[in-house]
Amino acid sequence: IALISLLMVADYLLYPLWPSPDYPAATAHDNGLWLRHTWYFGERTDVDIKRLAKRLHDGKFRYAYCHVRYIKPDGRLRYRYPEAARHLVRTLHREAPGMNVIAWVYVGSERGTPTVDVADGAVRARMVREAHWLVTACGFDGVQWDYEVCRNGDTRLLQLLDDTRAALPQDALLACCANMWAPGPLRRWVGWDE
Fold first, then answer.
1. Per-residue model confidence (pLDDT) at position 14
2. Residue 98 DSSP SS3
3. Residue 182: is it exposed, middle or buried by C-beta count within 10 angstroms (0-12/13-18/19+)?
4. Which of 13, 24, 52, 139 could form an S-S bond across to 89 if both were Cys, CB 3.0 to 4.6 Å?
């Protein structure tokens, strides 16, 4: 366990120093890149955004997943930066045509226990309104719920996806960050089944 922990820490610390990989043609135009919350917060310059657009275009990325941080226990977004979001999305669309800019929304947990009760209809309704706001007011092409903390077989995730799909414009993208598959004995601690 100590060796695995050490390798994970080394991977985390060394990852930014590794050179960018060559992207295989088989996955060209299907790749996505996760963007840190600083892009949504407006903490990047126009030069940074244009440089990002060039990287996305040259790397044949199709999706940019922009972390908008997290949902609070009441179902509302913790942070709202509509002007910065609109500017980011407009610039990426202009500089990297065909790019889909997705709002990545974390549905949090504390020590492995969800802090947002997705089973509560009022909380879920507020989450859905926030997803609609991210698309219609901020200009994102869609929303991705990061709800990895939900347990295997938890139908609340499916209800959240159904409710969100019904509220979003027809052409908006909807996705979720699914947990990894794990064989039966390991599912007690991590992972989902098919």
1. 72
2. coil
3. middle
4. 139
pLDDT for position 38:
96
Per-residue pLDDT reduced to its tens digit, 148-181? 767 777 888 889 999 999 999 999 999 998 777 7
Instruction: Count how many Cα atoms sit within 13 Å of the Cα of residue 135 in the half-sphere of its side chain.
Output: 20
Contact 144, 177 (CB under 8 A): yes
Buried/exposed code over 122-144 (b: 16+ C-beta within 10 A; e: otherwise):
ebbebbbebbbbbbeebbbbbbb
Share of residues in the chain with pLDDT > 70 (%) = 87
Token pair 């669309």: residue: 93
Write b or e for each residue in 26-35: b if 16 or more Cβ atoms lie within 10 A of its Cβ, otherwise e: eeeeeebeeb
